[in-house]
Amino acid sequence: MNAEIIAVGTELLGASRLDTNSLFLTDGLNTLGVEVTRKSVVGDDVVRVADAVRAALDQAGLVILSGGLGPTEDDVTRDAVALALGRGLEFSQAIADQIEARFAQRRRKMVEINKRQAFLIAGAIKLDNHNGTAPGQWIEHGDQILMLLPGPPNELKPLFETECVPRLTARLPQQFIRTRAFRVAGMPESDLDQLIAPAYRPYTSVTTTILAAAGDIQIHLRARCANESDALDQVEELGQKIEELLGDRLYSRNGDPLEAVVGSMLRERGASLAVAESCTGGLLGARLTDVPGSSDYFVGGFEVYTDAMKTRLLGIDARLIASETAVSEAVANAMARGAREKTGATHALSVTGEAGPQSATPGVEPGTVWVGLATPETVRASLFHLPGNRNRVREFAVQAALNLLRRAL
Amino acid sequence: MNAEIIAVGTELLGASRLDTNSLFLTDGLNTLGVEVTRKSVVGDDVVRVADAVRAALDQAGLVILSGGLGPTEDDVTRDAVALALGRGLEFSQAIADQIEARFAQRRRKMVEINKRQAFLIAGAIKLDNHNGTAPGQWIEHGDQILMLLPGPPNELKPLFETECVPRLTARLPQQFIRTRAFRVAGMPESDLDQLIAPAYRPYTSVTTTILAAAGDIQIHLRARCANESDALDQVEELGQKIEELLGDRLYSRNGDPLEAVVGSMLRERGASLAVAESCTGGLLGARLTDVPGSSDYFVGGFEVYTDAMKTRLLGIDARLIASETAVSEAVANAMARGAREKTGATHALSVTGEAGPQSATPGVEPGTVWVGLATPETVRASLFHLPGNRNRVREFAVQAALNLLRRAL
Predict the structure, then answer these.
(1) Sign of CA dihedral B375, B381, B385, B389
(2) Candidates A24, A301, A357; nearest CB to B303
């Protein structure tokens, strides 16, 4: 079975908002073995929405509409679907009572206009919405299925999970899905794809998705088979091959981000971490403290954005900075050593570089970043030439620092 | 004139990627007075894409396709549009030569498959692409216009600006656009809309768009009129009313973010800033150093994520933390005072709070944040109860700190 998703709402046709519900719906549909073959966004116009529904029914077994179920004149989805199917709308006293009760619970009186939400398309099944007033609707039309879902994500998501997924599962041939997720650091997307494509291509019942961010790549495998052991075998077998090809560059087998993986390693070893940040200005600490409970291993550190602060807060000799420049192996090492000593942490990371757009350091190109690491045994630094604009260089630098620590641990 | 946008690419029908080109295109089209009435995403299937083109031509004066112009078998946009229009494809030796030259410039040999990109739909005008091998195409079809644009944003954007906007402008009735952009801190979106809606509603020739992020709201005004002075008058008049209503909550009249506005104020006053961050863990420093040239006023500071570091790095009495808890007015003040003294900056901000999901401080709910500010004259702190999850609380806290400093300056 294939599906088309229609998002209804003039606000989604402006220059600032995207229909993100479709990503959530696509993920749920793919898990059930349903592929999405078209997505569209249509404004709050009853004729245009009806046209879109008719066009979708020409192509797809399943048509999902999101939005346009509210109480105002702009909310045309019910009317449009009724028009496209040539069905009537029926007032449901039960729904009206539910809406009224919802208002009463919040000590508000229901405004008459809300009764628009109590109309069901003839033959539709009401889908309970526990997070808003507009119920969803499930319509069987010959062999085809239509779903009308509310637009707000906090209403659409639980409603889809609890009301739609079980109904769809009962309609679809039984399938078993098994997934694996890997994360990889320190490798460009194109190199990674070139490396693993020969491994994943032959697995036609496994969908391999590669998602790249600055210095971080996610690989998702999803096997879909008629029996459970086949699905498990396929995903395990391909997963194993990918793990072997990637070796040490693979850092996560459960989707955890690099800051969480490094955090677990530090916690296991009873180690602690401090940072000294120049060009990242706090971004490395911010990433580390994204993880709840990170105070178990991350103590804190220094934002030493100016040369004067490198000297004042970390005790780095001003003559060293003058002779070597702030973007140098010697200063990166001195920053890591200083952060470790000043905080008493077992480990310290430092980052110093030129994020751009202009370089303030003579002879140093934007994108040049030194990462230092001080451990109980040693202090050393690595040089990176990172691509992209200021923002991307800073994100890459954080990722490079975390990955350096991971490899050392 | 109205437009439909069709994004071509099976990768845009998965659960992880959205068509963001359409936002850029919509902004450009709206500026020219063209409204987008439908957007769709179609996979790499020649029949489906041709169907989508035919459906769009039934409804819109302008049809824009993005993506599917590359050299591989998957790239079907040229074939699909030719099919939909009933036109042929013509090989252009000039384009083939350009592609070959592009490869030669990079010291690579052109693979034969790239010649697929040298086919123009009969009657199309080639749109030069200086950032990739696939040229765009401009097709006039009776009164209607079709554009084929490359999918990568770094190719699509400049090509649209330089090749499409001038051609469209020449076709459209002359209009004058004048815009204003405001940014507002410290106010929920719903309160803001309630406050300014009575002002903007009567201005039917001005489009007002409100965009909200954590603690930060943007208001965009766009007046579109047949003559220049009307457009300017409208946007100025409404802008003035909005400024009066918002008063001191309005922090930017040119779209600059809060960290840049605060930075300019510090620079003008010859002041400097340090930070001491607990729950934000570096996020405040990261935001401040997002701005190129921020080393003019931002010196750096301290990530004091644990209580021990608040004592060790900032010299805060451990008994004060024990008696008042780390999330308290006294500790926020001590952190700001300590950061100012240790760095020698004229001003210092501190942030200490519980970002959640659990609270480690007895009696303190997640979302509770104290922001301290030390100036040459005084030290004081403000209490915030911030909504949302860990990530959102941290972003709100940074915004609250920057806004506190702005109001003090």
Answers:
(1) positive
(2) A301
